[in-house]
Specification:
161 residues; elongated; alpha+beta
């Protein structure tokens, strides 16, 4: 019994989705820390040596950009330390990324989340972080992929008979 090409293609697509969902250990690192509630210290490593990179910071609860992308120069070992002025009482949870410019394409190099010990002002409501919806999105994507392949298979079957 021969395995239809459509089934082989479906297996390859499912394998690609599963590989994309597996956590990948990146060589790049990004760590955010603070000693005072007005400054965030971004420390990165494992990046290209003597490269120009950008550090972005977004508020986790609102998704809004906290500061404009901060240009940073890495040293000869591909590391950097940069202090960024951020009011952590207004933005206690940050999501940050390091971006490198690879030719004409901007590529993400490292990603990090940071929960500061700085408390919000009294009376300010804090939104709850509900977590990632990755399992639901992945299941929905696989379901749509299966439905599309089924439709393609049934339409080809009608044409050939």
């Amino acid at each position: 019994m021969r395995v239809p090409r459509l089934l082989k293609a479906l297996l390859v697509m499912v394998a690609l989705v599963v590989l994309g969902a597996l956590p990948v250990g990146a060589a790049e690192t990004l760590v955010l820390s603070c000693t005072v509630c007005t400054t965030v210290v971004a420390t990165g490593g494992g990046l290209p040596a003597n490269a120009d990179v950008q550090v972005t910071m977004n508020d986790v609860t609102t998704g809004q950009e906290v500061v404009k992308p901060v240009p940073v120069q890495t040293d000869a070992q591909g590391k950097f330390v940069k202090k960024v002025a951020v009011d952590l009482t207004k933005h206690p949870s940050l999501e940050s990324s390091v971006w490198t410019n690879n030719g004409q394409v901007l590529v993400i190099a490292a990603h990090s989340r940071f929960n500061s010990p700085c408390k919000p002002k009294p009376g300010q409501k804090k939104l709850a972080f509900t977590g990632s919806h990755t399992p639901e999105l992945l299941g929905g994507g696989l379901g749509l992929l299966a439905a599309g392949m089924l439709l393609l298979y049934t339409s080809r079957r009608r044409v050939t008979t």
